[in-house]
Amino acid sequence: MSRLTDAMERIRALECPTGDVAHRVTGILEDYEVANGEAITVEREGELGKNGLEVYRAEIGNVGEQPIMIIVQSGADDYVAKVIDVHIG
């Protein structure tokens, strides 16, 4: 497996406070040496329908690769976020 694939598998298992999703994703990509923190941008894109799913977009510098899309579901009290899916593009 490539470093990116391994990092995506680790992101897929992520559960953390809702406000920490972008920071944790950046940390995982750094830990797997996909890129350094300065080259990684993770932003919340918006919501998917009305079922509480949110989409985050992770871009890695100027490598010209497609972004990593991360689907997250917040808990009932909006404190804990659990990653539901991770894919490229």
Give helix and strand order, one letter per element, not per position. Answer: HEHEEEE
Q: Cα-atom Rg, whole angstroms?
A: 12 Å
State which percent range the strand residues make up.
35-45%
Morphology: globular
Q: What is the typical, i.e. mean, pLDDT?
A: 89
Helix content: 10-25%
Structural class by SSE content: alpha+beta
Distance from N terminus to C terminus (CA atoms, Å) equals 19 Å
Largest sheet: 5 strands, antiparallel
The residue ranges in which pLDDT falls below 50 over 5 or more consecutive positions are none
Strand order of the largest sheet: 1-5-4-3-2
Tally of extended strands? Answer: 5
Count, helices: 2
Would you write up a description of this structure?
With 89 residues, the chain is α+β, with helices and mostly antiparallel strands. Helix content is 24%, strand content 40%. Strands 1-5-4-3-2 form a five-stranded antiparallel β-sheet. Strand 4 and strand 5 form a beta hairpin. The mean pLDDT is 89.
